[in-house]
Amino acid sequence: MPLLPGKASADTYREKYRAVLEHFSQKASDSLKYRAALFLIDNMEGHFSPEGERMDAFTEAIGSLKSKRGIHELNVAWTSAGKKGNVTFMPDSCVVTDRLLISNINAAFKAWLSVPWRKDVGFDLFCRYILPYRCSNEHIGGNWRKALSETYSPLVKDETDMYRTFAIIKEAIFKDVVLSNAYCPYLLDAITCLHTGRAECGQRAVLLVDVLRALGSPAAIDFVPAWADYSDKSHGWTAVIGKSGVTYTVFEDDTVAKSGNPIDASTFASHYRTTDTDSCPYHVKRKKTAAKIYREEFELVDATAKARPGFLSNGFLRDVSERYGLDAEVTLDVRTSQEAVLCTFVSARDWIPVAWARSKDGKVTFRHVGKNVVYTACTTEDGYLTAPFLMGERGVKKFFKPDASSTREIQIDRKYPLCQYTVDTWGFMKGGVFLGSDTADFTDADTLAVITVMPHGKTDIKCHSDKAYRYFQYKAPRNNRSSLSELQFLIQKAGNMERLDGVYTADGMDDSHIERLHDDNTATSCRGLTPGYTVTLDLGNGRQSPVSLIRYAPSTDLNFIERGHLYELYFFDTAWHLIERRFADSDTLTFKNVPCGSLLLLKDKTAGKEERIFEYENSQQVWHTASHNKIFF
C-alpha cells in the first residue's frame, strides 16, 4: 500500500517495508545492512519522484536510441512523449519496491567494502553519501549502480586514491555528457541521462554523483540557490565528502580533487583581458558571488523547515557555506520572536530568501554568508526588517537608505553589468580592417581604418581622406569570427552625416542575415560566421564616394540602453518605488529627482529580462559584483 504524504510516520514506513527489514535481520552478519535499511526507510518520507506515462514514454524512447542525439531531437522526443500523458510527483513509497531497496543496499555495501579507501569512509558517511538510491529529486530508474559501475570502473580499476578517482571519473562524464540547455523540465535518472549525451549542470551532477556512489565514493550535490550578482539561475555541482565532513571538488583541470577549491563555475572563462589602451569605461565582471551554499541530503536535516519560504522549506538541505569559506556574519535588530530570512536580489525575480536564522533578545544573526553581496532581511510577520545593505569584509559596509529630501540627476547606459563572455567577443575584433577600393576583388584597396582597441558598444571612426571609392569592406581578423550588429559608412553633407547606400554582400557569413547590419538595431547580429569573414558595400555602377565616418557595433549582450525601448527606474527602501517611466531616444537615459543613497533598478519594459540592482556613485553605475574569489580552506 503506498503511503500518502502527510499521513506517514517512521513506524508506518517500517511496516510497509517490513519484508526488507526481515530480510536483513536473518543473519548477524547483516546487522549493518539492517541499520542501513532503517536509515533509508526512516528518511524516505518527503522524497518524491517525477512519474507518469510521459516520463515512461520519454525514458523508453531515450533508452532505445542507438546513438546520442542533438538538443532539437531531445526536445521533440519530450514533446512527443507529452501525448502519452502527464507527469506527477509521487512519494517514493509509491515507487520504491522491496526488491529495489534490497538490491540497492546490497550493491552499495559491495561497492563500499571493496574500495581501497574503505577505512576513510565510516558507516555514517556511507549511509549519507553512498547508500541512498537517489541524490536529488530525480526520476527513480532501475539498477543504476550495476550499469554505471560496469561502464566506469575499468577507468579506475588500478586507482587507490578516492580523490584521483573523482577527477578521472568527472573528466570521463564530462566527455560522455556535454553541457547543454535543458530539454526536459524534470531530473532524469542517471542511465537515461547518460543515453542522451547532454545535460544541464544539475542533471550532470546527478549522473556524476551516482557514478561515484556506484564506485564506492561518498558524493553529494552542493549548490548555489541563486548567484548573488549574476543571472536568475541556480548552479549545482558534485562534491566528495571526506573525513570530518571535509569537502573535496574538482576545479577546472584538477587531476585530483582538493579541499579549498574556488566555488564551481564561479569564474567566467576568460579568453580576452582588457588592457589600459582599450579604455573600457565599464567594470568587467569576471566572477560570480555566492551568498549561501547548500547540500542535498537524503537524511532529514530539519523537520521544522516546511514553514519557511521558498526553497528553505526543504528539510533535506544542509548548509555547507562554511565548507566553501563563506565566513561573513551580520547581526540585525528585529521586533519579532519569529525566524528571520536573509534575501538577495535575483534578476527578473526580485528578492529571494537564501538563509534563515532564529531571533534572540531582539536580534538575529546570519552566519557564514557571502561577502560583497547586497542583502535585505525580512520575516513573514513584519515584512522587510532593514534597508538593503552591502556586506563587506568585516560586516555591514553600508546601508542603502534613500534620502527623499536630497535628490540628484543621473545618466545611465546599462541595466546589467558587463560580463567577461561579452568582452571576449569584442576584444578579438582588434586587428579588423576597413578598406576602400575601386575593384570588387580589392586588389587595389586602401586601408581606411584598423581596429586597434577593443570596441564597446557603438563605435565611430573618423576618416580623414577625400579619396572616393565604389566599394567599402570590413575584413575580420583571420583567426576571429566575432559578430557585428551594425556596420555603416557615412559621408558628411551640409553638416549632417548621411549613410552611404548600396548593396551589401558577405563572404564567410550567412547572407540571409546581412540586412541586420544596417537596421539600426544592435539587438540583431550576423550568424554563420567563419574566421576572417568579410562584409562589402557596393555603391553601384558609376557611383563613388569618400567616407567621413565608419560606424560599427559588435554584437552585444542586449543590456545597453536601446532607443525606442520603454524603461522604468525604481528605488528600494522596504518596497520598490517607481521614480520615472520613459522611452529612450538616445544611447543613455537621464533621470531626475533620484533620491541620494538609494539602491536602484532599471527595467526594460520592451524586451529583455536581465536586470541588476545598482547604486550611482561618482557619475557611474556601481553593480557590487565580485571582484575576486579567494582560495578557501
Q: Concise description?
A:
Helices cover 20% and strands 29% of the residues. It contains twelve helices and 35 strands. The radius of gyration is 29 Å and the shape is globular.
Number of helices: 12
Helix content bin: 10-25%
Total of domains: 4
Principal-axes geometry comes out as globular
How many strand elements? 35
Percent of residues in beta strands: 25-35%
Computed over alpha carbons, the radius of gyration is 29 Å
Oligomer: single chain
**Which class of secondary structure composition applies to the elements?**
alpha+beta
Q: What are the low-pLDDT stretches, counting only 5+ consecutive residues below 50?
A: 627-633
Largest sheet: 8 strands, antiparallel
Distance between the termini: 48 Å
How would you describe the overall organization of this protein?
This protein has 4 domains: 10-248, no CATH class; 294-399, Sandwich (Immunoglobulin-like); 405-416 and 561-622, Immunoglobulin-like, CATH 2.60.40; 423-554. It contains 12 helices and 35 strands. The protein is α+β, with helices and mostly antiparallel strands and 633 residues long. Strand 30 and strand 31 (576-583) form a beta hairpin. The strands form 10 sheets. Strands 11, 12, 13, 14, 15, 16, 17 and 18 form an 8-stranded antiparallel sheet that branches.
